[in-house]
């Protein structure tokens, strides 16, 4: 057996082995495709109703438009001066004026009835089975399962992150779901009425997955409500819809809807049941760098300068670069870090700012979002990059102490 | 009409002088025609500046990936494009038309408040120097959207106070210009020119001026609250201090919705002047046009929250604003049907102003119909903040208002300059613009429905095709406006001599004046029967 054949055979076996998982894996939606023209019918009763209403009104306005355009173009054709048309002199006709006031009004009344019914249904969040709290951040989402002890952040995936830079390492065309993929998707069960509580931490965002049928603004200091009962398993993608700063276009949403038993497995896995982890199809997108399966001791081991600087640089690029910019030069109200005495000065102050944020400013608390190693790398990095010369290393154990 | 001879008589009739020479003519002028020219020239300049920003936007969106500008600069471009086009291009252009035309259409010698007229204009360059200068400051220009929603707008750096004060200055300018128009129309009409005999352009501007006086102070209040929130420790829009970010949106859109009708109502007046001329038939339903304009203006005050269906309004609020918004379609429909009936059984010719006016009716209808769709709150939760909305308001503002302004320029240019414009070039300009504007904006309907949010600098691969088509349309539309500039300059510098009547079907006092209209007109009021 040549090595080529061996590879083929192994591949075939591997594919066979994958089959049961592939069959169970939630599928991509058919709706998102190039040359897409229309709203999705979606996977909830709300999205279906919105779609039906949209199509109804679309046909009505097309009919009205056809009437207007045929009238205009017939006039242009028929009543041309060059064809010897003689102008009439009428300028008034009460009957037709009443007709074209009343008829549109009646049409609108006809549209208003189903629109009102749909609106009432959309606002009815009663009788829900579970609650997910969505919090918008610049520029990521946080999901908290109110009935489980699960919460996590959801950010643009690494490949899109690399491809969206100037002179990127990989081109956008090479990324499968460019700008529509995340590290940690929102996983929910089908056929359950999910109540979403939506809020934000910094500025207003808007949580929109078209196939659920709505978007809702997330507003700092206020909580909005919405609901969805997803009827089909699948992967549903969306984006932030309210301008929220530099990276508004780069905080997508991915919802994976699973059958109830698969969802239960996923919940168990999140709660630390490692045995369930292997066969979970939703697991494929979870960020390998999250460090979930590293034990605490390894977390606190000292790192070399190179390790710290390299990890810190990665963290900086994904978390800090958007505001403080690539060379730490800052932007607008976001202060420069390069050449900043506070950054190279008292190290405990720097740790505090990163872990706890600065209240009253856009600087958020990263303590809950980054682990000790990441913060240690980040502190080391910003104190020693771009000509900053604090010269010291900050180790994960020091971060643990500072928390 | 005797100004040319009267310039020789110094001393006796010293109000009968001609224009001053050199720069002082333009700095100190109180003449409504000079100020009309200044306003319109300023509008044209800003149209090209705002257009250049649109070119940057379309270049970045030509294909996926980071191609031309940083995402933060992209946000500055979308924000400034809107501010420049609304406050710098369209409003001054319409005010310029009002300045030039209202006195000659109602038989008045000038505007009622000529010195205020001068000041209102010269505030505009001051305001825009403040606003555009922010682009060269550390941290760049405003990037939170022209709607200036807090808390995002509070993250601006040095640009923030400049933005606020620029808005204040532009608002003061608009209020003064509007007071002037109201005072002129109500006090200075020629004998016999009753309100219901006024040309519709005067009517629509009268109503527009009332809208501006009503809402510009509201905008000033909203941005002042932003200013105190930022610098003086108030918490109007900060939940942590007991305020509410959504309250800003309510106040802003209480200004903002009448504002969009401020941008369209004078365009209705322009088209209502041009269609009858080239149909050689009186305007159909004059009085219903007046009432419909007033109805639209009234409704504009009670529909603002349809911009906010996604913020979490109570159900009753959503339903009220949905119903009120749908009602706007009724008087708007009346206008469109009246224009159709004006053309019906007319005797039409298709000079450039007529072409732009017909395109206005057709394409404004497209924008109006997508507006009916957007009015429906439950579906607006899908449409809101997508390219569907971008397509909608560009259909009503670009192929609507901007086309009407171009129609007006072609229509009255012979009266202003005494020369006919180059009809062949005018027609080329029309056809290139009318085709490219649809290539530019029609695919954006599809993009929005297919899931593309607005104000994003980069997009998923599924949106690549339509964005490229839209960008190509955008580049053609943008560069074809240089032809418009060329045609205007060519017409100002010379051309076939225009007759006093100019268009054989034209009605109204301005066509009784010589072409070009003298510096002072209607010193003796004409009698209107």
Detailed description of the structure:
- The complex is a heterodimer of chains A (403) and B (529).
- Helices cover 40% and strands 15% of the residues of chain A.
- Chain A is of the alpha+beta class and 403 residues long.
- Chain A has three domains: 45-122, Orthogonal Bundle (Helix Hairpins); 130-290, Sandwich (Immunoglobulin-like), CATH 2.60.40; 296-402, Cytochrome Bc1 Complex, Chain D, domain 2.
- In chain A, the strands form two sheets. Chain A has a five-stranded mixed beta sheet with strand order 3-2-1-5-8, with no helix packed on it.
- In chain A, helix 2 (45-78) packs antiparallel against helix 3 (94-122), helix 7 crosses helix 10 (372-384) and helix 10 (372-384) crosses helix 11 (396-402).
- Chain A is elongated, with a radius of gyration of 28 Å.
- The model of chain A is unreliable at 13-24 and 274-295 (pLDDT under 50).
- Chain B has helices at residues 3-6, 23-28, 32-60, 71-106, 114-133, 159-187, 200-231, 245-279, 286-299, 315-343, 352-375, 377-383, 387-417, 423-449, 464-493.
- The model of chain B is unreliable at 1-14 (pLDDT under 50).
- Chain B has a single domain (33-512), classed as Cytochrome C Oxidase, Chain A (Up-down Bundle), CATH 1.20.210.10.
- The longest helix of chain B is centred in the first third of the chain and has 36 residues, at 71-106.
- Chain B is mostly helical and 529 residues long.
- At the A-B interface, helix 2, helix 3, strand 7 and strand 9 of A face helix 4, helix 8, helix 10, helix 11 and helix 12 of B.
Element layout with pairings:
The complex is a heterodimer of chains A (403) and B (529).
Chain A: H1 3-24, H2 45-78, H3 94-122, E1 130-137, E2 140-145, E3 150-154, H4 158-163, E4 186-189, E5 193-200, E6 205-209, E7 214-218, E8 224-229, E9 234-240, E10 253-258, H5 260-270, H6 296-300, H7 305-324, H8 341-344, H9 347-356, H10 372-384, H11 396-402
Parallel strand pairs in A: 1-5, 4-10
Antiparallel strand pairs in A: 1-2, 2-3, 5-8, 6-7, 6-9, 9-10
Chain B: H1 3-6, H2 23-28, H3 32-60, H4 71-106, H5 114-133, H6 159-187, H7 200-231, H8 245-279, H9 286-299, H10 315-343, H11 352-375, H12 377-383, H13 387-417, H14 423-449, H15 464-493
């Amino acid at each position: 057996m040549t090595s080529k054949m061996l590879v083929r055979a192994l591949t075939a076996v591997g594919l066979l082995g994958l089959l049961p998982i592939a069959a169970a894996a939630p599928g991509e939606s058919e709706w998102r495709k190039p040359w897409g023209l229309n709203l999705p019918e979606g996977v909830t009763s709300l999205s279906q109703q919105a779609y039906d209403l949209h199509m109804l009104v679309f046909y009505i306005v097309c009919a009205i438009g056809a009437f207007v355009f045929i009238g205009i173009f017939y006039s242009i054709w028929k009543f041309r001066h060059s064809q010897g048309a003689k102008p009439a002199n009428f300028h008034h006709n009460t009957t037709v004026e009443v007709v074209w006031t009343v008829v549109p009004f009646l049409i609108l009344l006809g549209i208003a009835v189903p629109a009102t019914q749909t609106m009432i249904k959309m606002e009815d969040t009663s009788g829900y089975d579970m609650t997910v709290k969505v919090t918008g951040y610049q520029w990521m989402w946080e999901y908290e399962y109110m009935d489980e002890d699960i919460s996590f952040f959801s950010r643009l995936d690494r490949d899109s992150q690399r491809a969206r830079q100037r002179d990127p390492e990989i081109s956008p065309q090479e990324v499968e779901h460019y700008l529509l993929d995340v590290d940690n998707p929102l996983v929910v069960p089908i056929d359950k009425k999910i109540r979403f509580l939506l809020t934000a931490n910094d500025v207003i965002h808007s949580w929109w997955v078209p196939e659920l049928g709505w978007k809702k603004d997330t507003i700092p200091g206020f909580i909005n409500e919405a609901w969805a009962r997803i009827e089909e398993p699948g992967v549903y993608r969306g984006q932030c819809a309210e301008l929220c700063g530099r990276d508004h276009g780069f905080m997508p949403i991915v919802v994976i809807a699973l059958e109830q038993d698969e969802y239960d497995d996923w919940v168990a896995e999140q709660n630390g049941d490692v045995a369930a982890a292997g066969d979970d199809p939703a697991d494929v997108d979870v960020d390998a760098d999250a460090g979930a399966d590293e034990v605490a001791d390894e977390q606190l081991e000292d790192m070399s300068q190179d390790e710290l600087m390299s990890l810190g640089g990665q963290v900086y690029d994904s978390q800090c670069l958007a505001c403080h910019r690539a060379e730490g030069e800052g932007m607008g109200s976001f202060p420069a870090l390069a050449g900043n005495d506070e950054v190279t000065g008292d190290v405990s102050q720097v740790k505090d700012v990163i872990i706890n944020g600065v209240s009253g400013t856009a600087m958020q608390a990263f303590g809950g979002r980054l682990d000790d190693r990441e913060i240690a790398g980040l502190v080391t990095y910003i104190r020693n990059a771009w000509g900053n010369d604090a010269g010291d290393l900050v180790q994960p154990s020091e971060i643990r102490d500072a928390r | 009409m005797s100004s040319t001879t009267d310039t020789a008589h110094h001393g006796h009739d010293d109000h009968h002088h001609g224009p001053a020479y050199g720069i002082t003519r333009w700095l100190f002028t109180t003449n409504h025609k000079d100020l009309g020219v200044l306003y319109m020239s300023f509008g044209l300049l800003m149209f090209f500046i705002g257009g250049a920003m649109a070119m940057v936007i379309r270049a970045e969106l030509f294909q996926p990936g980071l191609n031309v500008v940083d995402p933060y600069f992209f946000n500055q471009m979308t924000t400034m494009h809107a501010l420049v086009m609304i406050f710098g291009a369209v409003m001054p252009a319409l005010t310029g038309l009002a300045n030039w035309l209202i006195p000659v259409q109602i038989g008045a010698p000038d505007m009622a408040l000529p010195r205020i007229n001068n000041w209102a204009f010269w505030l505009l360059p001051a305001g825009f120097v403040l606003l555009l200068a922010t682009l060269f400051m550390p941290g760049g220009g405003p990037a939170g959207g022209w709607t200036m929603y807090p808390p995002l707008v509070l993250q601006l750096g040095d640009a923030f106070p400049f933005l606020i004060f620029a808005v204040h200055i532009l608002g003061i300018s608009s209020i003064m210009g509007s007071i002037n128009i109201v005072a002129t129309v109500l006090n200075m009409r020629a004998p016999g020119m009753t309100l219901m005999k006024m040309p519709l352009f005067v009517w629509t501007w009268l109503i527009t001026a009332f809208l501006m006086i009503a809402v510009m102070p509201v905008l000033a209040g909203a941005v002042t609250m932003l200013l105190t929130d930022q610098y003086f420790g108030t918490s109007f829009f900060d939940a942590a201090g007991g305020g509410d970010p959504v309250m800003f949106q309510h106040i802003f859109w209480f200004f903002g919705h009448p504002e969009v009708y401020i941008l369209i109502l004078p365009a209705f007046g322009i088209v209502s002047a041009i269609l009858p001329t080239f149909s050689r038939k009186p305007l159909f339903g004059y009085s219903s046009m007046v009432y419909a304009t007033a109805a639209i203006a009234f409704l504009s005050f009670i529909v603002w929250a349809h911009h906010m269906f996604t913020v979490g309004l109570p159900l009753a609020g959503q339903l009220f604003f949905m119903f009120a918004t749908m009602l706007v379609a009724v008087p708007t429909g009346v206008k469109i049907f009246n224009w159709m009936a004006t053309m019906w059984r007319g005797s039409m010719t298709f000079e450039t102003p007529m072409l732009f006016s017909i395109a206005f009716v057709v394409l404004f209808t497209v924008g109006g119909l997508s507006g009916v769709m957007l009015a429906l709150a439950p579906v607006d939760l899908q449409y809101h903040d997508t390219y569907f909305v971008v397509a909608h308001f560009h259909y009503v503002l670009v192929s609507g208002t901007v086309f009407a302004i171009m129609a007006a320029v072609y229509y009255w240019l012979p009266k202003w300059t005494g020369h006919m414009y180059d009809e062949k070039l005018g027609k080329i300009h029309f056809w290139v613009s009318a085709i490219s504007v649809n290539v530019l904006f029609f695919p954006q309907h599809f993009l929005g429905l297919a899931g593309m949010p607005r104000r994003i600098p980069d997009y998923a691969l599924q949106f690549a095709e339509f964005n490229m088509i839209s960008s190509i349309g955008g580049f053609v539309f943008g560069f074809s406006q240089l032809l418009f500039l060329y045609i205007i300059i060519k017409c100002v510098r010379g051309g076939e001599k225009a007759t006093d009547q100019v268009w054989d079907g034209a009605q109204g006092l301005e066509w009784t004046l010589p072409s070009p209209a003298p510096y002072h007109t209607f010193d003796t009021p004409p009698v209107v029967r």
